[in-house]
Amino acid sequence: MRLNVYISKSGYCSRRHADTLIKTGKITVNGIVIDKPFYEVNNDACVCIDGSKVSLKSYVYIAFNKPKGVTTTCQDKFADKKIVDFFPENLKGIFPVGRLDKDTSGLILLTNDGDLCYRATHPKFQTEKEYRIILDKALLKKDIQKSISGANVEGELLKVKTITLFKEDAFQSSYGVVISEGKKRHLRRLFNALGYFVIDLKRIRIGNLSLGDLKSGEYKFLEKEKIYHLLFANQKLK
Q: Which region holds residue 111: left if phi is over 0, alpha if psi is between -120 and 50, else beta?
C-alpha cells in the first residue's frame, strides 16, 4: 500500500498529516528516508517515524443501532448517555463514523479505522444514507421538489437525493429519504425550514449496509472486507 496510507492505518495520524511527515523527511522505510507519500510499502515493512517504529493496527468494525437519547460522542461530561457507554472496556479505542443527533436513532458505525471514517464521511465520496422520517403532515409537491433541488438554511444548501412516500394522513406522514451528504442536523433543519415538524427520524442504511433486524441498543461486528465492499462498492479504493 502507499506509505501515507500505511501510516494512517497505523493510527499514528491522519493521511494528510502523514503526507507532511513524509515530505519533511521524518519517515524511514527499512532504514531509508522516503519523501514520497505514494511510495509503495509491504505490510511487513519496517516503517519508522522519527526513529520510532509504527505498525498496522488490528481494526474493529461495528454496526450499532443507536437508541434515542444517546449522544454520539466519546467524551462529554454533560451527556446522560454516550454511545461508547454501550461497549466493553476493551473496545474504548473505537470512535463513531459521523454522527446521529441525540434525538435520532438507527444505524451508525464505530471503528478504529481512520481511513474508513474518512471515506464514509467526506462529501466528495457521496456515500448514501437512508432514513425513515415521520413528519407532522403530508409534504406538498412543491416542498418535495424544493427539498430535492435544495433550500438555503442558515447559509447552507440542504437537500435530499430522493423521497419515497410510505404512509400519509392528516396528522402525520412517513417517508423514506436518501441523502448523499451529512451536514449538522441536516434533515431536521431542512424540513423545519420548509414548515414541517420532524416527529421521528431513524437511519436505516449507509451505502449498501442496512440496519436489518438489529434491535435498539444492540451491535454486531463486521469483517473488514464486507464493510468496505458494502460501503464503497462504487468507489475506487486506493
A: beta
Domain definitions of the chain by residue range = 3-54, 61-124+208-232, 128-206
pLDDT in tens, 54-87: 887 788 999 999 999 999 877 666 667 889 889 8
The amino acid occupying position 34 is I
In this structure, what are the phi and psi dihedrals at residue 88, rounded to the nearest 5 degrees? -65, 165
Of 78-82, 91-95, 115-119, where does the model show the most confidence? 115-119
**Catalytic residue IDs:** 101
- What superfamily would CATH give domain 128-206? Pseudouridine synthase (3.30.2350.10)
> Distance of CA 6 to CAs 13, 39, 45, Å?
10, 10, 10
Q: What are phi and psi of 63, to 5 degrees?
A: -100, 130
194 contact partners, CB below 8 Å, separation of at least 6:
143, 146, 147, 151
- How is 52-80 classified by DSSP, letter by letter? EEE------EEEEEEPTT-B--S--TT-S
Task: Supply the CATH classification number for the domain 3-54.
Answer: 3.10.290.10
Q: Does domain 61-124+208-232 have CATH number 3.30.70.580?
A: yes
